[in-house]
Amino acid sequence: MSLEDPFFVVRGEVQKAVNTARGLYQRWCELLQESAAVGREELDWTTNELRNGLRSIEWDLEDLEETIGIVEANPGKPAAQKSPSDLLDASAVSATSRYIEEQQATQQLIMDEQDQQLEMVSGSIQVLKHMSGRVGEELDEQGIMLDAFAQEMDHTQSGMDGVLRKLAKVSHMTSDRRQWCAIAVLVGVLLLVLILLFSL
């Protein structure tokens, strides 16, 4: 079989694409585990590249299957009409079939793992959404409690102001009474002195 055989060329391209997809898949798994530290853009880009790579591999494998089908459908053509660069012999066909099946199984495994990872991420997002809702409700409740506490403080402050005003009034009234008592005593003393002066 010639190295220029299209089967080997396509197989090499598929192998390169599979290796690239494996690298992207590993990076995608790392990004999922580091979701808090990385940007959403890099995760989206890696996911899109991985999907595009897998689609490309799938198309290449379909082309290989089609080529194998053509070769298997025309086994009776004379060898003179078959060029080594156009057709594959029976052993290459079976090797290609096995290779295609392996690549499809690998691709399916990667896609299944990707689906599981996406389900886990979706579950985590639901949990975080539920937790954020609970935190929001608790913050609302605490806000209501703080508002009630502030109103109670205002009411208490008003009561304290009233009590202080009453105390100031009582204190003022007490000092006025003392003054009147002092004046009354002084008037009494003055009268006594005047009486004593006039009686002498």
Q: What is the C-alpha radius of gyration, as a whole number of Å?
A: 48 Å
Instruction: Tell me the structural class.
Output: mainly alpha
Q: Approximately what portion of the residues adopt beta-strand conformation?
A: under 5%
**Major sheet: size, sense and barrel closure?**
none
The helix tally amounts to 3
Mean pLDDT across every amino acid position: 77
| Distance between the first and last residues' Cα | 161 Å
Unreliable spans are 84-88
CATH class: Mainly Alpha
Number of strands: 0
What is the annotated CATH architecture? Up-down Bundle
Report the order of strands and helices. Answer: HHH
Main location: Golgi
GO biological process, one term: Golgi vesicle transport
Family: Belongs to the syntaxin family.
GO cellular component, one term: trans-Golgi network
SSE blueprint:
Blueprint: H1 6-33, H2 40-73, H3 90-199
Written account of the structure:
By secondary structure, the chain is an all-alpha fold. The chain has one domain (6-148): Up-down Bundle (Methane Monooxygenase Hydroxylase, Chain G, domain 1). Helix content is 86%, strand content 0%. It has 3 helices and no strands. It has helices spanning 6-33, 40-73, 90-199. Helix 1 packs antiparallel against helix 2, helix 1 (6-33) runs parallel beside helix 3 (90-199) and helix 2 packs antiparallel against helix 3 (90-199). The termini are far apart.
